[in-house]
Amino acid sequence: MAGKPPDRVQLLKQELASDGGDPLDGEDGYPAPVDSTEDGIQIAGFFVGEDEKPASDELVGGYREADELVLFDSSYPAGITIATLATGGGGLTPSQHKTLRHGIHFVDNGPAEGFASGAYRETVGAPFPSSVVWYVSNAKTEKIVELTLTRNANKSVASKEWKIYDTDGTTVLATITDTITRSGIFETSRTRAIT
Fold it and tell me: What is the pLDDT along the chain (195 residues), one digit of tens a residue?
């Protein structure tokens, strides 16, 4: 039978004051029923089985590693911690996700939620800009994101290249390039390359 077990059973306990138990719960050291309202079972790990699997199956279970509970099954044989599960399995909380330096967080208007206030934007080339750079501050020592615009003869944008920088402000994490096709001044299509 697979699925939810049909029977609920109780364990017998051996409660010793020397191991953190309460001797008033019964004869110190003698087996007694587990009190489901106050007893916690002390084990090194556990395995969860079903009747189609042999009794020695160790494919699903959990154990303690340092101060974390690790759960495992056939999809995660190396295990996954409660902390990882709490962040949606990807290891990121919503607030951590906001600070990722991924292109989607910048294109078109620069850094927003998750970044410190005080970011500084500089535009080069008036009246037809050739670049827009966001820096961590007006000291302009650490870039966050940079947009380079290439223009055709009639000054329309022919390509846009975004560079996303790491927290050191100099290492490029990703480059996103749009190549734009136009009919006169009107855009008809664009191709995006991500590296």
Answer: 456 667 777 777 777 777 777 766 655 556 777 777 888 887 888 888 776 655 567 888 888 898 899 998 888 888 888 887 876 666 566 666 666 666 666 656 777 766 778 889 999 998 999 999 999 999 999 999 899 999 999 899 999 999 989 889 999 988 999 999 999 889 999 999 988
pTM to 2 decimal places: 0.52
- Give CATH for domain 98-194: 2.40.128
Instruction: Let me know: does 142 contact 118? Beta carbons within 8 Å.
Output: no
3-state secondary structure of 137: coil
Domain(s) labelled CATH 2.40.128 in the chain stretch across: 98-194
